[in-house]
Amino acid sequence: MNSWIIYSLMGAGLLLMVAAMILLIRLSKMKDAELRNGSKMELKVQALKIIMPLKVQAYERFLLYLERVQLPQLVKRVYLPGMEKGAFHLQLLQSVREEFEHNLAQQLYVAGTTWNAVVNAKEELVNQINTTFEQLKDEEDVAIIAQSLVALPNPVVEQAVAVLKHDFERLL
Question: pTM for the whole thing?
Answer without folding.
Answer: 0.73
